[in-house]
Amino acid sequence: QLQASGGGLVQAGGSLRLSCAASVSIFKFNGMGWFRQAPGKQRELVARISSGGVTDYDDSVKGRFTISSDNAKNTVALQMNSLKPEDTAVYYCNADGWWDDSGVYYPNEQYWGQGTQVTVSS
Questions:
Q1: How far apart (Å, rounded) are the C-alpha atoms in residues 101 and 44?
Q2: How far apart are CA 56 and CA 52, in angstroms?
Q3: 103: left (phi over 0), alpha (psi -120 to 50) or beta
Q4: Radius of gyration of the chain from Cα atoms?
Q5: Which of 22, 45, 19 minimizes the C-alpha distance to 99?
Q6: How far apart are CA 97 and CA 52, in angstroms?
Q7: SS3 letters for the chain?
Q8: What percent of the chain has pLDDT over 90?
Q9: b/e map of 107-117 (b: 16 or more CB within 10 Å)?
Q10: What is the pLDDT of residue 85?
């Protein structure tokens, strides 16, 4: 129920913008973010933004990546600048916790996107 887009192949130093939209009918997510998984490695958190706009970044991307969201549309984007070969991975968008239209909160639920490949050549 999350659709991610925007991956691709870029040279080192270049930029890409990832976007993710929710197709489920909910009122608001508690938080949305991006994870990535490189070959042979575990999935790791890249960036997350809360419904209140609080952001959290992995140290490896601080100053280079910017996460943003639109709570009204339940979308999240990741602007990636100064890309490095070590950023190469499959990127997954994620949403954790939500309120439905009746105001009921589901704190332990998560949605995942299908993953989009980002490849940075040296």
A1: 31
A2: 12
A3: left
A4: 14
A5: 22
A6: 13
A7: CEEEECCEEEECCCCEEEEEEECCCCCEEEEEEEEEECCCCCCEEEEEEECCCCEEECHHHCCCEEEEEECCCCEEEEEECCCCHHHCEEEEEEEEEEECCCCCEEEEEEEEECCEEEEEEC
A8: 84
A9: eeeebebebbe
A10: 97
pLDDT band at 8, cuts 50/70/90? very high
CB contact set of 59 (below 8 Å; sequence gap of 6+): none
Q: Is the pLDDT of residue 83 over 80?
A: yes
User: With b meaning 16 or more CB within 10 Å and e meaning fewer, what string describes 30-48?
Assistant: bbbbbbbeeeeeeeeebbb
- The amino acid present at 117, given as its one-letter code, is Q
